[in-house]
Amino acid sequence: MNAVIVLCHFCELHGPLAIFCTQTLRETRLSDVLSNKRGDSLGKKCAACTSLGETLVLMTKDEESQAKFVSSQQPMIQDVIPLVKQAAFRSLSCEITNKDDGLVFFGDGSRGHVLSHSFQIPDSKARGFYRLFSIVVLMKDKLFLVNIQPFLSHNLRKISSELKDYANAANPGEQSRQSEKAQRLSEGMGFSQPRPLTELTGEKHIFAHIHSQFAWILWAGAQYLKESVTIGSPMVPPWLGKDTEEGFTMVQVDKEEWLMRKHGIDEGDDDIAIIRDFRRFRSLLESHFIPLCYCVIVGTQVLLRGPSGETLRMIKCLKKLLPKYLHRLIHVDASKYLPPSECRILSVSFNITVPQSCTGIFRVEFPKRREDKFSIEWLGDLPGKTPDLLTKILRAFEEEQFTDIVLEKHLRVLIEEWNNKIQCLKKIQNSQDVNRIKKILSVQQQDALLVNYWSNNA
Question: What are the distances in angstroms from CA 407 to CA 123, 394, 416?
Fold first, then answer.
């Protein structure tokens, strides 16, 4: 996670200051950073404002990503120092919530975005008998910081609670040795040097403990939320946002799912089981598998005639080759034949009369007995160059290293990729711009039928 986590305190002599910083270094060499910091000076500070000093650093390395989480008195990167100073000042002065152990979000694009958590640690020798501390998380990515706020909130509160527990455990020992609080109340306020955090908590290695927690937050924060980039708009269910005149919301019922349960095929909703069926149909259809996939993705009507259970299994497989908005053109277990203008994938029983195969109908007759083979009829021909999507689908099925899980996810990615290309082309009005975008998106002439079918029904 590209962020800086800083422990700050309000010193009675020097005001709000950052005393401990942890940040991530990836490509930067630690030796180069330390050599650049040799000339820097922290200035004359009191013991409370000093944690590790000018030369000492703590480092934790992630062997998998080779990221180094480095803690020091000041940030290792010089450009970050003024940002941290300003964040520390605001977190302990004006950006404080009235709610105990609350969090405050502030910042902007130029000075960074900050999530601040302020808390109090008891100190019998301080003004008001407590010291004000804060933990701030500084980063440039506003959306990322806001999205991981629940994760940071939980862990920052956990760290502050541990520090207060350490201080409360050490404070009764002080009060038994000398009643500093009672003496100050009776004799008036006297000046005392601010004490460091190691003395307040009674833990000699408290900063090593804080470093381990800050380093873990930076490492785990990168795993908590990951971003992915897609082209175009995400697929939207066709029923989303459609309301009736009476104010009811339209919900699309998955008829295939209901029929699968009716026929006792429980694994029909399992993506892995569908992929297994897909592989089985591929071997059964033999050379007809490629024309079948071609007709599905370009919109040629596919007519399945056979037992309801088997035709439903094949339809579940063929749906994997289409975006969701084209699923409405699929009819399962129809009571009569429907023309291509109404549906593109149709399943019927043996007793339904259907037209003969032609260039516009790919007809699949399921075997009535197990020892029989499929009867495939289609008068059309595959083009010399098949669509790019079909080429990638066939290559994925031929890849021996792909498990069922990998193949299912790979097919989903391929469909989403081409759906995003279609959405981009639909937003372009000028014909010259369309040709330019097609070239950028690698949409070629052999993809024309697919593009027309998907875009006209999106």
Answer: 61, 11, 14
CB neighbours of residue 431 within 10 Å: 8
Element (H, E) at 60: strand 58-61
By the 10 Å C-beta count (0-12 exposed, 13-18 middle, 19+ buried), 172 is classed as exposed
How does pLDDT run across 171-201, given as a tens digit for each residue? 765 554 455 555 555 555 555 678 888 888 8
- Dmax (CA) of the chain: 107
Tell me the two tokens of residue 401: 């290293």
The DSSP letter of residue 382 is -
Q: Smallest Cα–Cα separation from 426: which of 452, 446, 450?
A: 452
pLDDT in tens, 279-298: 999 999 999 999 999 999 99
Extract the tokens encoding 329.
Answer: 């053109």
Its pTM stands at 0.50
Cα gap 314→307, rounded to integer Å: 11
Per-residue pLDDT reduced to its tens digit, 19-43? 899 998 887 776 666 666 544 444 5
**Angle, helices 149-177/180-187, rounded to nearest 10 degrees:** 80
Distance CA(178)–CA(180), nearest Å, equals 6
The secondary structure of 148-187, three-state, reads CHHHHHHHHHHHHHHHHHHHHHHHHHHHHHCCHHHHHHHH
Q: Cβ–Cβ contacts within 10 Å for residue 134, how many?
A: 26
pLDDT for 177:
46
Higher pLDDT, 428 or 163: 163
Chain centre to alpha carbon of residue 377: 45
Nearest in space to 142 (alpha carbons), one of 103, 111, 117, 118: 111
Amino acid letter, residue 80:
V
On whether the CB atoms of residues 201 and 163 are closer than 8 A, the answer is yes
Q: Specify the pairing of strand 375-377 against strand 301-305.
A: unpaired
Tokens standing for 189? 């306020």
- Geometric angle at alpha carbon 168, from 164 and 173, rounded to 5°: 150
Q: Whole-angstrom Cα distance, residue 24 to residue 4?
A: 7
HSE on the CB side for 94, CA within 13 Å?
A: 6
Token pair listed for 239 = 């029923």
Cα(283)–Cα(306) distance, integer angstroms: 18
Residues in the chain: 458
Report the pLDDT value the prediction gives residue 1, as an integer from 0 to 100.
Answer: 78
Q: Do residues 70 and 23 make contact, with C-beta atoms less than 8 angstroms apart?
A: yes
Residue 268 vs residue 93, higher pLDDT: 93
